[in-house]
Every structure is written in structure tokens, then in C-alpha cells.
Amino acid sequence: QVDVAAMVQLFGYVDVTDTGFIVAVLSIAFNPLFWNVVARWEHKTQALSKVFGSPHAACYCLGVAILVLNCVRSHCFTEAMKSQPKLEGWDCHWTYYSGLAISAVGTLFVISSFLALGFTGTFLGDYFGILMEEKVTSFPFSVLDNPMYWGSTAIYLGWSLMHASPAGLLLTAVVAISYTIAVLYEG
């Protein structure tokens, strides 16, 4: 039997009908949907490669679009957190530094993933016909699958803890669910 009292208490701090919260949820869900649809469309049609004159130019443009969308998502996430109440018991040094540590680990996974894959490896170059010579198995891929997704999720979790934000924790769950669906779709 599961005790749902903690979840009920957590949801008591979150207004899921707040416009900022809804926008954050939509931006979180939109990003992986966007890049997967565009990448699969490119793979089938090579339309972006034709428009931009080369697969590399098209991949770089998609990568920039993804980075901009990630900035928008992070902004929406932060604004939604700021507009909702904090959890008083978590607004302390211990929670802040725990969140900072979790964010640091997440950042390590994201940056090391990017360095291992490069720009085109990170931003769906394989859909543009830009293939790596061999599968990357070094850190962080030697530690876990999809380290960029889970590193990003950890960054949001840490950010939520640093701000003692129940809304942030709920939005982090949306991030994790979105990435889980993306992994299933990409696999």
C-alpha cells in the first residue's frame, strides 16, 4: 500500500492551472517532439539539406534551433517555478547545496556527452547522413544510456531543489517523462 500523503501535500503547493505552469509543460513536451519529427522528416526527404545546401549546414541550423528552444524551455521552467510557492521546509542550505550537487552532476553528463559526440553527433547528424566512425562508449556513455537526457533532467531536479520548488519538481517529472517517451520513440 502506497502512502500518497506526501504527493497530496506537494500538489497542494502547485497551481497546475497557472498559465506559466501550462506554458512550461507545453515547452517541455514540445522540444523532443519537434526534434524527432524534424529529424525523421529530414531522413526521409533530405529537404533541409537541399534548402541549406548541405547536410552539415542543415544539421547545424537544426542544432541552433534546438538550442534556442532549450533556452525557451529553461526560461519557461524558471518562470513557472518563480510564480509558485516554495516548500518552506526545503528552503534551507542543505536542500540548496544538494540541488547544486545534483545540477553539477547533470552538467557533467551533458557537457561530457557533447564533447564525446561533437555538435553533429549531439544534434541528430545521423538523420542527415553524418555518421560517426564508431559508436561512442567512453564516459559518460560507459556509465548510463542517454546521459544527455538524464543529465538535463538532473539539472532541472537540482534547480528545483535549489529553489525549494514543488512546481519545479513536478515539471522535472514532466521532463523525465518527455525524455522517456523520446528514448522509446528514438529506439
Taken as a percent bin, the fraction of beta residues is: under 5%
Characterize the main sheet.
Answer: none
Overall tally of domains: 1
- Subunit arrangement of the protein: single chain
Care to describe what's here?
With 187 residues, the chain is mainly alpha-helical. Helix content is 72%, strand content 0%. The protein has helices at 5-11, 19-45, 47-52, 55-82, 93-122, 147-162, 166-186. The mean pLDDT is 92.
List the helices and strands and how they pair.
Elements: H1 5-11, H2 19-45, H3 47-52, H4 55-82, H5 93-122, H6 147-162, H7 166-186
Helix pairs in contact: 2-4, 2-7, 4-7, 5-6, 6-7
Defining traits:
0% strand, 187 residues, 7 helices, mainly alpha, globular, single chain
Summarize the structure.
The protein has 187 residues and is an all-alpha fold. The chain is built from 7 helices and no strands.
